[in-house]
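Hi R.,

As promised on Friday, here is the backbone we talked about, encoded as structure tokens. Could you run it through your design pipeline when you get a chance and send me back a sequence?
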């Protein structure tokens, strides 16, 4: 199954299915008393990524729709649920009045793949292939 997904992904890249779109990131803070977290995915997969903080579902991210939420200051565990991939937990400390950019990415392995969410640099846009 995983090999089929990889073949279809690369076929879509080669065949030109979809067009490139630029996704803007709203950088304004949502609160001065809490942290603002912006979660995005720029690898171009058409999956919906379910994002969790401390085992609580907080929202979904697609390659064309980032997620922006407030987070209580302090240390939190973040992970993403994706079918047929191992969820890797990232522990992140958040400070009030700051923005945090978190990038979802799939680490494709030969036998096992994992989905990760890691801190990234501040960005204002990213470009992905649209499957709409």
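Update: got your reply. Pasting your designed sequence below so it's all in one thread:
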């Amino acid at each position: 199954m995983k090999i089929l997904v990889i073949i279809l992904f690369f076929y879509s890249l080669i065949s030109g299915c979809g067009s490139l779109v630029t996704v803007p990131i709203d950088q304004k803070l949502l609160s001065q008393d809490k942290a603002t977290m912006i979660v995005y995915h720029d690898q171009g997969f058409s999956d919906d990524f379910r994002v969790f903080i401390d085992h609580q579902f907080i929202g979904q991210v697609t390659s064309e729709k980032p997620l922006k939420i407030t987070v209580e200051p302090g240390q939190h565990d973040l992970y993403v649920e994706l079918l047929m991939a191992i969820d890797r937990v990232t522990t992140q400390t958040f400070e009030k009045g700051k923005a945090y950019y978190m990038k979802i990415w799939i680490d494709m392995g030969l036998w096992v793949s994992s989905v990760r969410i890691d801190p990234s640099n501040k960005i204002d846009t990213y470009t992905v292939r649209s499957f709409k």
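One thing I noticed while checking it: The mean pLDDT is 85.

Thanks again,
M.
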